[in-house]
Design a protein that fits this description.
The complex is a heterodimer of chains A (about 120) and B (about 800). Chain A is mainly β and about 120 residues long. In chain A, about 0% of the residues lie in helices and about 40% in strands. Chain B has about 800 residues and is an alpha/beta fold. Chain B is elongated, with a radius of gyration of 37 Å. The chains are: A mainly beta (about 120), B alpha/beta (about 800). The structure holds flavin-adenine dinucleotide (FAD) and FE2/S2 (inorganic) cluster.
Chain lengths: ~120, ~800
């Protein structure tokens, strides 16, 4: 990932939690699952633009804090009966440093994000 | 020449030779004259059952496999207590202290010798091994001394069986194990860890990663010293660090020996007239240490002796730990790698861990802890290399359920009889199940009638139904109707709460493990509920999980539809002063708060604050003495008051003062849902106390208490609870009511639906009629307030790390 930028350390994001990042000209939510996987999505729910970084992370999904739409972290797609899609970004862990990469084209395979080792 | 029988000499009267002789006599009873040498002063017995003999669960007589009668019938010349010291292959005879014995065919079945780790003090008195009956007798003798201590070196099957046996005999036992977890060759880390916990629970001390340095003592052992300096005092030391094939005779005789005595597929050694089998033999570079393959060898050796062709084929082995009450099973290869797939099942309530490793749709390995009933089945699938694609999803639940559903009753089934099921009436599980059996009860009403369980608040009825269903099986018609908390579990709210208490579950992962959550970490619906139930159940002990709170409670402010937040400082009983108002005004200016509004609960709301400003806003408000108003929380919101007797010409009591007092006592407490109070100074009820969760209306002679009201979409007027006289009584009744609500209502259930569900009579009974119960409830409330009454704003703003978490991360430039 040549274009990726350093944005912080793994410990800056709580496990089963998220953090907003201002980078690449927009708000991006970086999620850390219970299994310490990292995902990056635009911080904007497809429903009413709720800040996904304030939602509850459950498995590989996040419940939007406004109306509980569930967004799949791997694909950026709304789960269940809801329809919508969030932009995904590449994110990578080098050691404990988090690097944010470019937008992932929407036709790229889902789950393009990287699983990381537990600390 | 008469057909003289051939002479067969067998060295070692152990498990392998015993089995071989059986096969031999069956196939060709007249072929050989057999002489059986055994170093032990006794015949063949079931060595693996020495463990229950050590623990006292069996006697030696029970494990003897061949007795005098049997040897007599088959004409075996028994030479027990005689050690074979040499083999003369040219003369075809074996030597013992008593002389020599000629053979035509010789069978070596000498087993193995325990491996003594080469450390200082290994030859001291009291250093024992665990191999034969003499060892068991020596250990049992040592255990007779009251308070005697044993150190077992080696946490493998043998060491643990020794440890459990010695502990059963009353010794204080420590197990030293070199590797990271017990039974490292049979179990994975998770199962090893569960096993360790269980042994420790039984009082056996376990020290993993223990590098033994020396055994200390003058003549007799006194202690074991580890490399890290730890010293474990000991009256005996059991070396259980492994075994070595007993091949000395064969080495001396010049047979081909590697680790063991090398044999071909027919069990024949490098000398065509000498066979070897059992643990002393090495086949295809493998030495075995378990009986199953040795029995196969015995069959092959018997055939070879009768001139039949036969070949030994290496087999998969499985192991079980023979410690009563500890079920461990392992088979195959359970290391994960390319192309392997794990299926894991946990059921901590029953202490069960199961792991299957699949490779190419076949079982490659299995580790079972706690429930080994299906070990045989998995082992079968493994050995037969059966394709399990079709049963893959269910097979972890075992053979019986591979096609059916999981057992929904397992958590209740695992409860001890003493576990309290009905909190209201103090009825435990045992009382309910025995009443069901004794009186032939078939439904919940019967249980209610005989035990009183579920006769009060009814929150335990789900559990009672499960007990009925469990006891009656198919005869029970009223299948549980409990609505699950969410899609992650089949348990309802009330059961989860009750089971949290009954099982002493103290963290969210513990609850999920014990109650078999079906998702890895729950969902936005169950996690906040569990977080609340746990903090209510274990005040002061439970550590709140911020990631299991809704955004408002995580950020201590109300999220607005544009993602900004609103901030409401507390104003006790609706009172404020110029100082506070100035601070609020300053904050509004400084952080450019777009909207400032007075709320329905008599507070001031600063709307439109940016998330990253929250910590600064709180610091500024804190500086003026303002704390969080919890306007965002499932918590005590506000106590609304009218001006009362101090100013109002109709006022009968000091309603403002009462409001301030109550708010100061109850703020900070977390609840199932938001909770509002109001105090009106006269029946004109200007504070609208009769649409609050707890409303107080002053009258000439005291205070009327009302409960269960709410405004909102569906207005509900309160129910009258009772009338009390003193301020102290108001406080006790109010806090007792809050605590009852905290303990009984389901998460996100406000007081109104809760009271409608359990009935006003139930609440009256608990609060108005039961003085003792009321006092206890109130005391529990104050206990929890000791921990919960903290200003979250000050806490959040006071911690630099937490402060930072309110601001976004930014792209960092690396120089
Ligand atoms: C406490 C304990 C528990 C066990 N539990 C299990 C279990 O649960 N499952 C399992 O599969 N396996 C278990 N084992 C292992 C199992 O007992 C052995 O694999 C099996 O006994 C080996 O049989 P064998 O005939 O090769 O050797 P043994 O049964 O050891 O017999 C060898 C005999 O040869 C004698 N001998 C040796 N040298 C000479 C000589 N020069 N002259 C005369 N006699 C000699 C020895 O004294 C011994 O009696 C356990 C072992 C022990 C000690
Ligand atoms: S804005 Fe996300 S669910 Fe409505």
């Amino acid at each position: 990932m040549s274009k990726s930028v350093y944005i912080g350390e793994l410990e800056d994001i709580p496990r089963r939690g998220a953090r907003k990042v201002e980078a690449l000209g927009c708000d991006i939510a970086i999620f850390r699952t219970g299994e310490d996987e990292l995902f990056a999505l635009e911080d904007k729910c497809p429903h009413r633009q709720g800040p996904l970084s304030d939602g509850i992370v459950q498995g590989r999904g996040v419940a939007c804090p406004l109306h509980n739409w569930i967004i799949d972290l791997g694909s950026g797609l709304a789960r269940g009966p809801d329809e919508g899609c969030v932009k995904r970004f590449a994110v990578e862990l080098r050691g404990s440093a988090i690097y944010l990469g470019p937008l992932i084209a929407s036709d790229a395979a889902p789950e393009a994000s990287l699983a990381v080792e537990a600390e | 020449m008469s057909t003289q029988k051939q002479k067969l000499v067998v060295v070692g009267a152990g498990m392998a030779s015993g089995r071989m002789l059986e096969h031999l006599f069956e196939a060709a009873p007249e072929a050989y004259d057999v002489t059986l040498f055994g170093a032990e002063p006794r015949g063949n017995y079931n060595r693996i059952m020495l463990s229950p003999v050590l623990s006292g669960e069996k006697t030696f007589e029970e494990i003897v496999t061949h007795d005098e009668n049997w040897y007599g019938t088959h004409g075996v010349t028994c030479r027990f207590g005689e050690n074979v010291t040499g083999i003369d292959r040219k003369a075809k005879q074996v030597h013992t202290a008593a002389g020599m014995t000629p053979y035509d065919k010789l069978v070596l079945a000498t087993g193995s010798a325990p491996f003594i780790i080469p450390i200082a003090g290994k030859e001291l008195d009291g250093v024992l091994v665990f191999r034969d009956l003499d060892d068991v007798e020596a250990m049992s003798k040592a255990a007779e001394k009251p308070g005697a201590r044993a150190v077992v070196i080696g946490g493998g099957l043998l060491g643990l069986e020794a440890a459990a046996g010695l502990q059963a005999r009353g010794m204080q036992v420590t197990v030293l194990h070199l590797m990271e977890h017990l039974l490292d060759r049979q179990l994975d880390a998770s199962a090893g860890h569960l096993l360790q916990r269980e042994l420790e629970r039984r009082g056996i001390k376990v020290h993993c990663k223990a590098q033994s340095k020396a055994i200390l003592g003058e003549e007799h052992v006194e202690a074991v010293l580890l490399e890290d300096g730890t010293v474990y005092p000991a009256d005996i030391v059991i070396m259980a660090a492994g075994i070595r094939p007993e091949a000395r005779l064969a080495v001396d005789a010049g047979l081909h020996v590697e680790r063991g005595i090398v044999v071909n597929d027919a069990m024949v050694t490098s000398d065509p007239d000498i066979l070897a089998l059992g643990e002393c033999a090495e086949h295809n570079e493998v030495c075995y240490g378990l009986v199953a393959p040795l029995y196969d060898m015995a069959r092959v050796a018997a055939k070879t002796l009768t001139g039949e062709e036969a070949a030994f084929k290496p087999v998969e082995t499985s192991t079980k730990l023979k410690v009563t009450g500890v079920d461990v099973f392992s088979a195959g290869d359970f290391s994960t790698g390319d192309g392997t797939e794990d299926i894991v099942y946990r059921d901590a309530a029953r202490g069960v861990y199961k792991r299957l490793v699949l490779k190419d749709d076949k079982v490659a390995g299995a580790v079972l802890y706690g429930d080994t009933a299906d070990g045989a089945w998995y082992f079968q699938l493994l050995k037969e290399r059966e394709v399990v694609r079709d049963i893959r999803d269910r097979m972890i639940f075992g053979q019986a359920l591979a096609g059916a559903d999981t057992d929904p009753f397992s958590a209740v089934a695992a409860l001890p009889d003493t576990a309290e099921i009905c909190g209201c009436n103090g009825v435990c599980k045992g009382a309910i199940t025995s009443a069901i059996a004794e009186h032939g009860l078939t439904d919940i009403d019967g249980v209610k009638q005989y035990t009183k369980a579920s006769a009060s608040c009814g929150s335990c009825s789900g559990l009672v139904e499960q007990l009925l269903a469990m006891s009656l099986g198919d005869e029970y018609s009223g299948a549980p109707t409990v609505k699950p908390m969410c899609g992650c579990t089949h348990h309802g709210h009330d059961e989860v709460r009750r089971l949290i208490l009954a099982h002493g579950l103290k963290t969210i992962p513990e609850v999920m493990q014990a109650l078999e959550w079906e998702t890895p970490d729950g969902c936005f619906s169950c996690r906040p509920a569990l977080n609340y139930y746990l903090l209510c159940a274990w005040p002061g002990e439970y550590v709140d999980d911020a990631q299991s709170r809704f955004v408002n409670e995580r950020h201590h402010a109300n999220i607005q539809k544009d993602g900004t937040f609103s901030v409401v400082p507390r104003m006790w009983g609706g009172l404020t002063n110029p100082n506070e108002l100035r601070a609020i005004a300053d904050v509004a200016d400084k952080y450019q708060i777009p909207t400032v509004k007075v709320t329905g609960g008599q507070r001031i709301d600063l709307l439109g604050a940016r998330k990253e400003h929250l910590p600064d806003i709180w610091s500024d408000l804190n500086a003026a003495g303002l704390v969080s108003g919890h306007a965002y929380g499932k918590a005590l919101r506000t106590v609304k008051t009218c001006v009362g007797s101090e100013w109002c010409r109709f006022g009968t009591q000091d309603s403002t003062g009462m409001g301030v007092t109550l708010e100061r006592l109850t703020w900070g407490s977390w609840m199932p849902h938001k909770f509002k109070m109001a105090v009106s100074g006269c029946p004109r009820n200007c504070a609208e106390a009769t649409i609050k969760d707890f409303g107080i209306v002053a009258v000439e002679s005291g205070w009327e208490l009302h409960v269960g009201g709410n405004g909102g979409m569906k207005v509900r007027v309160t129910d009258f609870l009772c009338k009390v006289e003193s301020e102290e009584e108001v406080i006790e009744y109010c806090t007792a009511f809050i605590q009852l609500y905290r303990e009984e209502a389901r998460y996100l259930e406000r007081t109104a639906p809760w009271i409608e569900r359990v009935g006003l009579d139930h609440v009256k009974e608990k609060i108005a009629e039961d003085a003792q119960g009321r006092a206890a409830l109130s005391a529990r409330f104050f206990l929890s307030q000791k921990y919960e009454q903290r200003d979250p704003w000050a806490e959040q703003a006071g911690d630099p790390g937490t402060r930072r978490s309110y601001s976004p991360l930014r792209q960092k430039v690396i120089a």
